[in-house]
Recover the amino acids of this structure.
C-alpha cells in the first residue's frame, strides 16, 4: 500500500473522480483540483470518501506537493501546471494508466479510431455480454476505467480510448487493440500536424507483445500507409472489403467472413442490425474482437442481429408529416458527417456547424452536391460553411439554437425528406457537449 504517497488528480470529471476513488482505495493520499465547478454528485462522492479537493481554480499549495499526478484527458500538455510538474520531475499519467496498474489479472479490449469507436465499443461489449463474458464497458463511454476497477472489477474490460487518453499512457497494454480508422481530427491539440495525431493513435499498440492481437482496418489509407512506420509486435488481424485475408475479416458479395479464434463465422450483411458501409466495418472489427476472446459464432451472430444503435449516433428520432429526423450529434468531425451522408437514401436537409476544429469541408462536397437540398447552420460563426457550399446548395440559413435549426429544417423539408443533424463540429459554442446538443435537437423535434 503506497501510504502517504500523495496523488494529485487534475480535473474533476468522470475520469478524475474515478481515478480519485481508485487511488484512495489503494492507500494514496488523494487531492482533486478542478479549474471549474465540480458537479454536485462528484462533490458528494469526494466528501463521502474523505478526499480533499479544490474547485474554481488551482493552487500551488494543492498541486505542487504531489508525488504523482493523474491528469484529465481534456487537459493539454501545454497547460502551465503540466509544464511545472514536468520541470519538477513529478510523473504525470492518465486515468487509464492508473486503472491498468490495479486491474489485476483482468484483460482489456482497447478500441480507438477517429470514427466508429463508440459504436464498435458498444457492439463488442454487446456481443461479449451476449456470449456470457464477465465484462464491463469503460473509458470514453460509460464509467471511467478506474471507477470500474475500484467499484466492480471484471474479468474483461471493453474500453473506448481516445487519442488524448493514449497520450498519457506509460505501461498500458490492451490484450486486444482495435484501430477503426484515422482521419484528421483534434489537430488543434496536435500542433496542426497530422503525423502527431497518427502517432497518438498507434500508441495503442506501443506495449503489446506477441501474445496480443491488433485488429485494424486495412482499407483505411492512413493506416495502410503508416503501418510499417511503427514497431508492432502483436498478431495482426486486418479487416477489409478489398480482398480475403487468411486471418481477420472480410466482406465479399454481401457476406461477412471472420477467421479468428477457433471458428469460422459467415453471416449476411443484410442481417446486421446497424446499416451503412461504415457500420459494416464497425461490425467486422467487433466480430473479430469477440471471436478472438472466444465467443462462439452463434452468439456473435445473434448479438449482431439484435444490437441497437447508440444514442446520438445515426439515431432515429421521429417521422413528422412524412419527414424523418435523425440525430447524429456525435459527428464532431467532417469524416463522421461523410459517413452519415454516405448512408442517406432520401433528399436531405443537413444541420451543420459548431466549433470548427480546422475542418476541410471539401471532403463532403460531392456528397452534399448529390444528396443535400438545404443546409441549416447551427453555430456562432458559420462563414466557413457558407464559403464551402455556397455554389452547391441553393438554400442555406443561419440559426442560433437547436429549436431554431429544427424549425428551419422542417420548413425546408417535404414529405419523403430526411432532416439530418450531423454537425461535423464540436458543440462547445452553443451547448455543453454533443449529448446536450443531441438531446436539445430531439426535444425540438418532439415540440414540432
Amino acid at each position: 500500500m503506497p501510504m502517504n504517497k500523495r496523488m494529485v488528480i487534475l480535473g474533476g470529471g468522470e475520469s478524475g473522480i474515478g481515478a480519485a476513488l481508485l487511488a484512495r482505495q489503494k492507500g494514496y493520499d488523494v487531492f482533486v483540483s478542478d479549474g471549474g465547478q465540480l458537479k454536485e454528485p462528484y462533490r458528494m462522492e469526494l466528501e463521502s470518501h474523505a478526499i480533499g479537493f479544490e474547485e474554481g481554480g488551482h493552487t500551488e499549495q494543492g498541486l505542487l506537493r504531489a508525488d504523482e499526478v493523474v491528469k484529465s484527458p481534456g487537459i493539454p500538455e501545454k497547460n502551465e501546471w503540466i509544464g511545472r510538474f514536468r520541470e519538477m520531475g513529478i510523473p504525470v499519467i492518465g486515468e487509464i494508466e492508473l486503472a491498468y496498474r490495479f486491474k489485476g489479472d483482468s484483460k482489456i479490449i482497447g478500441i480507438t479510431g477517429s470514427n466508429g469507436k463508440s459504436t464498435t465499443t458498444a457492439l463488442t461489449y454487446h456481443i461479449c455480454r451476449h456470449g456470457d463474458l464477465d465484462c464491463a464497458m469503460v473509458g470514453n463511454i460509460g464509467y471511467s476505467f478506474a471507477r470500474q476497477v475500484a467499484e466492480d472489477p471484471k474479468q474483461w474490460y471493453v474500453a473506448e480510448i481516445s487519442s488524448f487518453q493514449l497520450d498519457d499512457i506509460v505501461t498500458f497494454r490492451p490484450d486486444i487493440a482495435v484501430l477503426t480508422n484515422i482521419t484528421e481530427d483534434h489537430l488543434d491539440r496536435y500542433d496542426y500536424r497530422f503525423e502527431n495525431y497518427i502517432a497518438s493513435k498507434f500508441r495503442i499498440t506501443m506495449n503489446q507483445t506477441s501474445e496480443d492481437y491488433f485488429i485494424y482496418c486495412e482499407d483505411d489509407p492512413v493506416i495502410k500507409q503508416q503501418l510499417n512506420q511503427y514497431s508492432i509486435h502483436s498478431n495482426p488481424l486486418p479487416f477489409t472489403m478489398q480482398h480475403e485475408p487468411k486471418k481477420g475479416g472480410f466482406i465479399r458479395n454481401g457476406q461477412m467472413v471472420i477467421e479468428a479464434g477457433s471458428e469460422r463465422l459467415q453471416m449476411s450483411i443484410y442481417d446486421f442490425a446497424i446499416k451503412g458501409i461504415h457500420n459494416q466495418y464497425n461490425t467486422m472489427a467487433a466480430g473479430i474482437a469477440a471471436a478472438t476472446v472466444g465467443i462462439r459464432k452463434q452468439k456473435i451472430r445473434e448479438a449482431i442481429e439484435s444490437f441497437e444503435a447508440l444514442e446520438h449516433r445515426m439515431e432515429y428520432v421521429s417521422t413528422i408529416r412524412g419527414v424523418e429526423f435523425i440525430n447524429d450529434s456525435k459527428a464532431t468531425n467532417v469524416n463522421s458527417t461523410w459517413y452519415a451522408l454516405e448512408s442517406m437514401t432520401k433528399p436531405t436537409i443537413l444541420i451543420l456547424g459548431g466549433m470548427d476544429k480546422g475542418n476541410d469541408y471539401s471532403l463532403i462536397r460531392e456528397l452534399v452536391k448529390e444528396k443535400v437540398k438545404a443546409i441549416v447552420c447551427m453555430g456562432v460563426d458559420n462563414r466557413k460553411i457558407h464559403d464551402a457550399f455556397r455554389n452547391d446548395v441553393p438554400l442555406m440559413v443561419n440559426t442560433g439554437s437547436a429549436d431554431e435549426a429544427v424549425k428551419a429544417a422542417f420548413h425546408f423539408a417535404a414529405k419523403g425528406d430526411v432532416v439530418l443533424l450531423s454537425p461535423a463540429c464540436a458543440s462547445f459554442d452553443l451547448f455543453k457537449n454533443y449529448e446536450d446538443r443531441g438531446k436539445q435537437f430531439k426535444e425540438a423535434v418532439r415540440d414540432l
In short: Residues 315-446 form a domain with the Protein-Tyrosine Phosphatase; Chain A fold (CATH 3.90.190.20). The first helix runs from residue 14 to 25.
